[in-house]
Specification:
This protein starts with a helix and ends with a helix. The chain is globular and about 40 Å long. By secondary structure, it is mainly α. The protein has twelve helices and no strands.
Length: 220
């Protein structure tokens, strides 16, 4: 499996259908939300993993979701109200940028921030559960950065393993990872886009365009 499964594969399809039904929106719009939000979450996790204190906290949270059981009840997750746990995960992922992420996704999707906040609170445990499942199945050791890099398609993590490697594989590894003309891999591309999104110098229109670019990378 790779990150496409979280967006357009079996897991993503269930989430998209559930979001569309719950919010009463077209599935294409629900898919855009998932295709923009999930990679942004992973990019933020990848950034946070560079901080030792945050890395340890994220790694522990992923271990708590390593059973993967949450992936078997995606429809049920969206049928209720957003969980307190989900909101906490979102806050840990985005920190002080949580409101910025929520509001810009809402503005671009034509929804209110409360609706998008509920979607994020439900997607976050799914992302953590997926990473936990991938980490559990990884054959190599390593840290959070390795796992995330792997899920994001970082091709260089062939020996280290860990969260960076795992995140590279989730995003598709070498076979499904498009490279920019400059030679950037998908991890670098997403990291740059996320960095621009969180740049306080960009206005809402600029942030909306960046979200479109992120969704375009993974929502095809």
């Amino acid at each position: 499996m790779n990150i496409s499964d979280l967006i357009s594969g079996g897991i993503g399809s269930q989430a998209i259908s559930a979001i569309a039904n719950k919010l009463g929106i077209d599935e294409s719009k629900a898919k855009w939300i998932v295709a923009a939000a999930v990679p942004l979450m992973i990019a933020a996790l990848n950034y946070n993993a560079k901080n030792k204190g945050q890395s340890e906290a994220i790694d522990k949270a992923i271990d708590q979701h390593s059973g993967g059981g949450i992936l078997d009840k995606i429809g049920d997750l969206f049928s209720g109200n957003s969980s307190e746990e989900g909101n906490k995960i979102v806050s840990h992922i985005f920190g002080n940028n949580t409101e910025t992420v929520t509001q810009n996704l809402a503005d671009k999707a034509g929804l209110n921030s409360q609706q998008v906040g509920g979607v994020l609170a439900t997607l976050a445990p799914i992302v953590m559960g997926y990473l936990g499942q991938q980490k559990q199945g990884a054959s190599n050791g390593g840290g959070l950065g390795d796992l995330i890099g792997s899920v994001l398609g970082g091709g260089g993590a062939s020996t280290g393993g860990g969260i960076g490697d795992l995140l590279g594989n989730v995003l598709g590894g070498n076979a499904a990872t498009p490279e920019a003309s400059s030679g950037q891999n998908v991890t670098d591309m997403l990291g740059n886009l996320a960095g621009e999104f969180f740049n306080k110098g960009n206005d809402s229109q600029g942030k909306g365009n960046i979200l479109d670019n992120i969704a375009g990378m993974f929502g095809k």
